[in-house]
């Protein structure tokens, strides 16, 4: 017999089905609650609400577990590539060698963008924030591929739009950076792999050759994998919500980019670097700032420590710390003053009882900010990098929502405004 829970309202008992996930997560199914009782639930921020059943990503914050399609993030980061992980998330299985080759080649075939997109791009002011440019240009792709608006498009058409978006976002992201610094854009070189091609478009100049550093490529590949999906977060839920209205993939992802742009969601790694720079400008006394963080009367917080979901440790942080050390060594930056401050903060968090007791360990944002800074990516591009990494997860979530024929999202509310009142003409108001 199926497990149920009882709820008593106005003296009447109602049975609520209990839904159990493959990892023993349990939820109360309240789909019929309003119809049966007239009540709705109130859960500001949706912290206790499961809005969907998903087979993509499993996250256990208490145990520090993150898995994509059942595969531990540690194995994927060490052994896989960003393109293989993208395939895994979107299609639900690891590809064969031929499937991955075809996937890569089909994506690289679409890295160029329509020249009319360049005209839109050229209309942005020099210095425009790259996230504003990126979200606008991704949304504009719907105009160039109007067939994406058809909610009944075939699976082949859906797959084509998926590959187009993965291909073009790296070009648009790099061009957004070039626009912000007033440099001429670089066209993609499809002989390079996905990550190396992006680095070429970011950092190459027409006047000189650019050689991609394999250590940098490896670290960036890991970062993109670690950011590829993270269950039902703010931007992912935004993509699913917008997509539930049968909006195109481009429109849905553009909305996700805008959500990610919010500093409470995607801006943490940028805040890490800004904090390190502030400490450096103050004289570099790390202990002073550690003491400020421990002072209950001081509003200062150490950025990049602790996590809202992971109550023990962030499994991604352990992986990316090693990559950060490799990048700093390869680029000869071990003695950088900024990175020296970061190491001292890291040591304090790992040894100071105040941080240990509160489980305020360095998280993925702490180390990713250091890597981005080391390889020359400016702080205003950090969230763009996050968006590039998160794209396969957004696509997978949009695709799952579409294939499961989920209904349009329509949250309820508890109205706390004025009761009915009569309109008073303007000339009769006091």
TrEMBL record:
Q: Which reaction does it catalyse?
A: oxaloacetate + acetyl-CoA + H2O = citrate + CoA + H(+)
Which GO BP terms, alphabetically?
tricarboxylic acid cycle
Claim: Acyltransferase is one of the keywords in the record: yes
Recorded superkingdom: Bacteria
Report a single Gene Ontology molecular function.
citrate synthase activity
Q: Which keywords annotate this record? A: Acyltransferase, Transferase, Tricarboxylic acid cycle
**Gene3D superfamilies xrefs:** 2.20.28.60, Citrate Synthase, domain 1 (1.10.580.10), Cytochrome P450-Terp, domain 2 (1.10.230.10)
Q: Where is the active site?
A: 307, 365
The biological pathway it contributes to is:
Carbohydrate metabolism; tricarboxylic acid cycle; isocitrate from oxaloacetate: step 1/2
Q: Enumerate the InterPro entries for this protein.
A: Citrate_synth-like_lrg_a-sub, Citrate_synth-like_sm_a-sub, Citrate_synthase, Citrate_synthase_AS, Citrate_synthase_bac-typ, Citrate_synthase_sf, Citrate_synthase_typ-I
The record's Gene Ontology cellular component field reads: cytoplasm
SUPFAM superfamilies for this protein: Citrate synthase
UniProt-listed Pfam families: Citrate_synt
Family, as annotated: Belongs to the citrate synthase family.
NCBIfam families in the record = cit_synth_I, PRK05614.1
Record protein name field: Citrate synthase
């Amino acid at each position: 017999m199926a497990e149920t829970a009882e709820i008593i309202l106005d003296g009447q008992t109602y049975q609520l089905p209990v839904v159990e996930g493959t990892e023993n997560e349990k939820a109360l199914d309240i789909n019929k609650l309003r119809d049966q009782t007239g009540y709705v639930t109130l859960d500001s921020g949706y912290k206790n609400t499961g809005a969907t059943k998903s087979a993509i990503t499993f996250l256990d914050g208490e145990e520090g577990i993150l898995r994509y399609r059942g595969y531990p993030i540690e194995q994927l980061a060490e052994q896989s590539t960003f393109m293989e992980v993208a395939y895994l998330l979107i299609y639900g299985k690891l590809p064969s060698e031929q499937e991955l080759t075809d996937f890569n080649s089909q994506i690289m075939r679409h890295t160029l963008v329509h020249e009319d997109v360049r005209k839109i791009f050229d209309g942005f002011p020099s210095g425009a924030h790259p996230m504003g440019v990126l979200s606008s240009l991704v949304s504009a792709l719907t105009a160039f591929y109007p067939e994406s608006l058809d909610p009944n498009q075939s699976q082949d058409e859906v797959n084509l739009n998926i590959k187009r978006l993965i291909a073009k976002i790296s070009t648009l992201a790099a061009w957004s950076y070039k626009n912000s610094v007033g440099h001429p854009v670089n066209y993609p070189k499809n002989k390079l792999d996905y990550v190396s091609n992006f680095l070429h478009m970011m950092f190459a100049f027409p006047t000189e050759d650019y050689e991609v550093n394999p250590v940098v490529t490896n670290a960036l590949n890991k970062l993109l994998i670690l950011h590829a999906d993270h269950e039902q977060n703010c931007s992912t839920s935004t993509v699913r919500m917008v997509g539930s209205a049968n909006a195109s993939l481009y429109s849905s992802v553009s909305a996700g980019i805008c959500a990610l742009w919010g500093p409470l969601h995607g801006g943490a790694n940028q805040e890490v670097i800004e904090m390190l720079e502030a400490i450096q400008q103050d004289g570099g006394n790390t202990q002073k700032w550690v003491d400020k963080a421990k002072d209950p009367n001081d509003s200062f917080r150490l950025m990049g420590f602790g996590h809202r979901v992971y109550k023990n440790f962030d499994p991604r942080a352990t992986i990316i710390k090693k990559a950060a050390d490799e990048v700093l060594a390869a680029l000869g930056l071990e003695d950088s003053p900024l990175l020296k401050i970061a190491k001292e903060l890291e040591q304090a968090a790992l040894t100071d009882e105040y941080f240990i007791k509160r489980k305020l360990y360095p998280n993925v944002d702490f180390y990713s900010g250091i890597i981005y800074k080391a390889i020359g990516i400016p702080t205003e591009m950090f969230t763009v990098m996050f968006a590039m990494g998160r794209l396969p997860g957004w696509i997978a979530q949009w695709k799952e929502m579409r294939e499961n024929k989920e209904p349009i999202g329509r949250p309820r509310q508890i109205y706390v405004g004025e009761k009915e009142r009569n309109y008073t003409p303007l000339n009769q108001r006091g």
